[in-house]
Design brief:
Layout lengths: L1 E5 L8 H14 L4 E5 L5 H5 L11 H7 L8 E2 L5 E4 L8 H4 L9 H7 L9 E5 L6 H9 L2 E7 L2 H4 L2 H14 L5 E8 L6 H14 L12 H5 L7 H4 L4 H17 L25 H4 L3
Parallel strand pairs: 1-5, 1-6, 2-4, 2-5, 6-7
Antiparallel strand pairs: 3-4
Length: about 290
């Protein structure tokens, strides 16, 4: 089971969109994927057609009440894709766990004790835009880190702190943790700024910068309001093509083996009306 933390301390750079649609792209190939919504905003939960306000068994239950992980896993509309939802009460976890010894290892221990772990090929953590105890739990539990970034100069700000935290986790809590890649998101290749920033990112990260670029795409922005992945909402869009390409590239990067499950046929579901109210055009991409 490969565990991947999708993280960036800056908000609105594509974390949730990447977690959901990477998971969906892997699931379409026959990999069994579990998504964990680590963000109190619960955008991933909404993205896969769950209602955070109605969920009683969420990640908060695991982190605060030690509820076993198998009691929290829920199916989604896409075969091979499951989710552990979030809700707004997750925002209080930092305070609740402030004096708890070993608070950074709760999630890793829960995954190690999870009887269904062998049935999943991938676990993807959608991290919040902060570097507190929730992100620390994801980094301690993960094998690889994916860093989505916008091609804007402000996106480079704060990267030093993120890399410092990753190195600290590697040194003290999870020496096996590796940065898999840096993924440019919401890219407008027509602008000189994007080209310049990409060049700057490549200078800093070299081969860690993916060849895949996630282009600006309105279908990606609107799909969460329908509670669907991009492959269900607009399978012929640039967004679907880009995440399909990224899944291929990431699989090669981490040397993933064949899926345990057989690939499922991909079908386009009937058109659906968006949720009311829509999920803020999906955090514009997390």
């Amino acid at each position: 089971m490969q565990r991947i933390a999708v993280i960036n301390q800056k908000g609105g750079v594509g974390k949730t969109t990447t977690t959901v649609n990477l998971g969906a792209a892997l699931a379409r190939r026959g990999y069994r994927v579990l998504l964990l919504d680590m963000d109190p905003q619960a955008n991933l939960t909404v993205h896969v057609d769950k209602r955070p306000d109605l969920e009683s068994h969420t990640l908060t239950s695991l982190l605060v009440e030690d509820t076993p992980l198998q009691e929290l896993v829920q199916p989604t509309t896409l075969p091979n894709l499951a989710v552990v939802p979030s809700d707004t009460s997750l925002a209080g976890v930092e305070q609740v766990l402030a004096n708890r010894i070993g608070r950074e290892t709760i999630l890793r221990e829960a995954l190690e004790a999870f009887p269904g772990a062998a049935t999943f090929d991938f676990v993807l953590f959608d991290c919040p835009p902060s570097l507190g105890v929730l992100s620390a739990n994801a980094l301690v539990a993960a094998d690889h880190v994916v860093i989505p970034m916008q091609a804007e100069y402000l996106s480079l700000q704060g990267m030093a702190k993120l890399l410092e935290v990753i190195q600290l986790v590697q040194k003290r809590l999870n020496p096996a943790l590796k940065i898999a890649c840096v993924l440019p998101c919401m890219l407008d290749a027509r602008t000189n700024l994007s080209t310049e920033v990409l060049r700057e990112i490549e200078t800093h990260f070299g081969s860690l910068l993916t060849k895949t670029r996630i282009r600006n795409n309105v279908k990606l922005a609107e799909s969460p309001s329908f509670g669907r992945t991009i492959f269900e909402h607009a399978p012929d869009s640039n967004g679907a093509r880009d995440y399909e390409a990224f899944a291929n590239e990431l699989l090669a990067m981490i040397g993933a083996g064949a899926p345990k499950a057989a690939a499922v046929p991909t079908t386009t579901p009937p058109a659906q009306r968006p949720h009311e109210p829509p999920a803020a055009a999906a955090e514009a991409s997390a």
